[in-house]
Design brief:
This protein is α/β, with parallel strands linked by helices. The protein has 4 domains: 6-201, Rossmann fold; 209-408, 3-Layer(aba) Sandwich (Rossmann fold); 412-513, Winged helix-like DNA-binding domain superfamily/Winged helix DNA-binding domain (Arc Repressor Mutant, subunit A); 534-608, Orthogonal Bundle (DNA polymerase, domain 1), CATH 1.10.150. The strands form 4 sheets. It has a 7-stranded parallel sheet with strand order 3-4-2-5-6-1-7, with helices on both faces. Helix 2 (26-34) runs parallel beside helix 3 and helix 19 (434-442) packs across helix 21. Its cofactor is Zn(2+); Mg(2+). Keywords: ATP-binding, DNA damage, DNA recombination, DNA repair, DNA-binding, Helicase, Hydrolase, Isomerase, Metal-binding, Nucleotide-binding, Zinc. Residues 30-198 form the Helicase ATP-binding domain. Residues 219-278 form the Rhodanese domain.
Length: 611
């Protein structure tokens, strides 16, 4: 039996936001909220989580208090809602005096439907009491994983939100996150709710994302090759160090990309300016540390690159989730190397945490390493980590095959070669790196080989049937598999682990993925096809024409381009070519307020386009 408010919710969804139907999982959360229940939703980025608290606020009236971790995200959401005709405001440290005064006037008059605040602001004196006197109908907690010490973005201030709820009179809570494994979900529920909430865990699959990994081999060249098929698209390149973001942004700028760096060590004005350019304009590449991203609400990010391996699958999933939020095709590439793995393991070992926490962090890191070195479908391996079973993407619902399903990677018995390499490690003293080990195995006479007399080892030259690169790759794989460990945090190099000794002495076999050699031309063609999204030349031309119009309006109004209309909406306009306001109203993403504001100017642009 349909919910009593469903017809009203659907009417509001169409008139305000321009959508004909809910996305998968949304109605279950919205229905629970409309019933006044506590609800905890774990839904992937791009699934429309914000609609799960925005729509109930409009249907039921009254004030919904939204806790959001970032000022940029608050500003962005308030801007989008205001242009859709929704009474929304935020209270944050970046407010001008007039903005704060206006927000309070609208609060006192009962006009506001959504008020966005940071958890830090709620912990201050007086605000919660003042809001209680005004009356709050619901508390919405975005990025709820920040409450959990098991989450990857832990914010201590989120721990105060259970008390905030009580101080507001025990109002119902909607908590939302995109990334939480079972342990993190249990912790979030325990921290935020006095009794178990209505739990909605939607599929973690993002079928519009292409997943690809590659061992590092001249990373700057690999990234440049990847970006060639993404000119004109917006994207993020994540780096593990501040200096690397700046060097990479500089190198991409020299190649003609509109590229900027972003990291926590930058002067704040410059950092904010770079973020604003990325958010507001098209075709911008941001080279960033993980300081950039949480709450970034740009729907038309067409690619995410990891220049270095992420520290966990949760981080990886959260970061690639910033691509393709509009549901259109998006591309991802993750580069990884033995140095990344060693660095991440070292970081965990050096943390001031208890043994149980260290064990869990190592387990999470090993899951990330396994994903890099897997011979199985990336998509099904990723989803299995979150407890979701799905067929390989060559057989499933994904729009694009992952790199392994496209290249048919297989596991092969690597025991013999592994024993050769492990023997070289042991015989050379368990302190040398991958390049030196490759020289030993291929019989290459280097200065270090001569100085160490390693040309006299029994293993010198036993692997001259393979190139050095193959032995270096095997070193990485054995390190990933736990057969090798760092010999020294100061000097690097490798030593055998207990597992490595078992393999070397014949007590244990090992199978490893055979590295595929992808056809770069085929990959480039596939990416180009993914980017074009099947648009014919005329439609693509009109889409670009409308993007330029959108950009000029956005600059004039001082807002992000996608706040005017998303790429998805512009593509629908380019395909449908509406002739009047009634036809324009049927385009997804065109609500009544936007139809009034922008309908005529976009209709004129479509009518006069000469393509």
């Amino acid at each position: 039996m349909p919910h009593a408010s469903e017809s009203q919710a659907r009417a509001t969804l169409k008139s305000v936001f321009g959508y004909d139907d809910f996305r998968p999982g949304q109605w279950e959360v919205i229905e629970a909220a409309l019933d006044g229940r506590d609800v905890f939703a774990v839904m992937p980025t791009g699934s429309g989580k914000s609609m799960c608290y925005q729509l109930p606020a409009l249907v039921t009236g009254g004030l919904t208090l939204v806790v959001s971790p970032l000022i940029a995200l608050m500003r962005d959401q308030v801007g989008q809602l205001t242009r859709a005709g929704v009474a929304a405001a935020s209270l944050n440290s970046m407010n001008t005096e007039s903005e704060a005064t206006e927000a309070w006037e609208r609060l006192n008059s009962g006009e506001l439907r959504l008020l966005f605040v940071s958890p830090e602001r709620l912990s201050g004196e007086g605000l919660v009491g003042r809001l209680r006197r005004l009356g709050v109908n619901r508390l919405a907690i975005d990025e709820a994983h920040c409450v959990s010490q098991w989450g990857h973005d832990f914010r201590p201030e989120y721990r105060l939100l259970a008390k905030v709820r009580e101080a507001l009179g025990g109002v119902p809570v909607t908590a939302l996150t995109a990334t939480a494994d079972r342990q993190t979900r249990e912790d979030i529920a325990q921290q935020l709710f006095p009794k178990p909430p209505h739990l909605v865990v939607h599929s973690f699959d993002r079928p519009n994302l292409k997943l690809a990994f590659a061992p590092k081999d001249q990373p700057r060249r690999q990234i440049a090759d990847f970006l060639k098929s993404h000119r004109g698209g917006s994207g993020i390149v994540y780096c593990s160090s501040r200096g690397r973001t700046e060097r990479l942004a500089e190198g991409l700028s020299e190649k003609g990309y509109k590229a900027f760096a972003y990291h926590a060590g930058m002067e704040q004005t410059q950092r904010n300016r770079n973020q604003d350019v990325f958010l507001q304009e098209d075709g911008v590449v941001i080279c960033a540390t993980i300081a950039f991203g949480m709450g970034i609400n740009k729907p038309d990010v067409r690619f995410v690159v990891h220049a270095d391996m992420p520290g966990s699958i949760e981080s990886y999933y959260q970061e690639i989730g910033r691509a393709g939020r509009d549901g259109l095709p998006a591309d991802t590439l993750t580069l990884y190397g033995v140095e990344d793995m060693a660095l991440r393991r070292r970081q965990i070992d050096e943390k001031a945490i208890d043994d149980e926490r260290r064990r869990i962090e190592h387990k999470r890191l090993n899951a990330m390493i396994d994903l890099c070195e897997s011979a199985l479908c990336r998509r099904s391996s990723l989803l299995a980590y979150f407890g979701e079973q799905t067929p390989p993407c060559r057989h499933g619902q994904a729009q694009f095959r992952c790199d392994l399903c496209g290249g048919e990677a297989t596991l092969t018995d690597a025991t013999l070669d592994a024993r050769k390499l492990l023997s070289a490690v042991m015989r050379s003293g368990q302190r040398f790196g991958a390049a030196h080990l490759a020289d030993i195995l291929t019989g290459t006479m280097s200065e270090t080989i001569r100085r160490q007399n390693h040309d006299g080892l029994k293993t010198f030259g036993v692997g001259n049937d393979k190139p050095k690169a193959a032995w270096q790759a095997l070193t990485r794989k054995l390190f990933a598999a736990g057969a090798l460990a760092e010999a020294s945090t100061e000097h690097g190099g490798f030593r055998l682990t207990e597992k490595g000794e078992d393999i070397l002495f014949g007590r244990e076999p090992i199978s490893l993925r055979a590295d595929a050699l992808p056809d770069r031309r085929a990959r480039a063609s596939e990416r180009a096809a993914a980017r074009a999204d099947g648009l014919d030349e005329g439609t693509a031309g009109l889409f670009e024409h409308l993007r330029q119009l959108r950009l000029s309006i956005a600059r004039e109004e001082g807002v992000a381009a996608y706040i005017i209309f998303t790429d998805r909406t512009l593509i629908a306009m380019a395909r449908e070519r509406p002739l009047g306001l009634d036809q324009m109203r049927r385009i997804e993403g065109v609500g009544e307020r936007k139809l009034t504001q922008y309908g005529e100017v976009f209709l004129d642009a479509i009518a006069t386009f000469a393509g």
